[in-house]
Amino acid sequence: MSETKRLSIFPLPGALLFPGMHLPLHIFEERYQALINDAMARDRRVGMIQPKTGGDTPELFDIGCVGKIIDIEALEDGRFNIVLEGVARFKVIEELDSSTAFRQVQAEIEEPREDDEVLASTERASLEIESRKFADLQGYQVDWDSIGRLDDFAFVNGIAQIAPFDVASKQALLEVEGLANRSELIIQLLQFFGRSDGDDDRVTLQ
């Protein structure tokens, strides 16, 4: 099931939002200050999506994530600090002509359908093993006890959102269907991006 609606969008390279996850943002451009004011006056929702290209009106990827503003701090000069919570993925159907400073699209919004999915015990174990290897190679300090208490939905999407992969890889993680498939893709990316440099065993990310 899905619904189609007009959605105000915030194209931001390298900042993906996944369903169920939180994304803090500092809003300083006037057009996006206007977007936040508009969202607060309506339903608190904005569409986070990655641009494919640079420029003032970049081409967009087809898939993004609807975010609900769950926390907001209004600063005196018009800027905002906000926290978005991922609600559901959306697909851009078409961009709309709009008089607003920010862009708007007609979007097909998915019904949330992964939050009750679970991984097989072997799938969960494999993801945890590869995550630990990657974190150790990177020198990250991780509270693995807290990680172990996360449900599969939060664990998989949390890694997908914060892992230091490139734009195309992060977009692929957002677009892949099903929690088990996203977990498998994360494992492949952790192995690829976490490979060692042959000279000094440093981890390379490109």
| DSSP helix fraction | 25-40%
**What is CATH's topology name of the largest domain?**
Archaeosine Trna-guanine Transglycosylase, Chain: A, domain 4
Q: What's the number of extended β-strand segments?
A: 6
Number of helices: 6
Q: What's the level 1 CATH class of the largest domain?
A: Mainly Beta
Sequence stretches where pLDDT stays below 50 over 5 or more residues: 197-206
How many structural domains in the coordinates?
2
What does the radius of gyration come to?
A: 18 Å
- N-to-C terminal Cα separation, in Å? 38 Å
Largest sheet: 5 strands, mixed, barrel
Strand order of the largest sheet: 1-3-4-5-6
By CATH, the superfamily of the largest domain comes out as LON domain-like
Order of helices and strands: EEHEEEEHHHHH
| CATH architecture identity of the largest domain | Roll
Strand-pairing-aware structural class = alpha+beta
Kindly report the average pLDDT value: 89
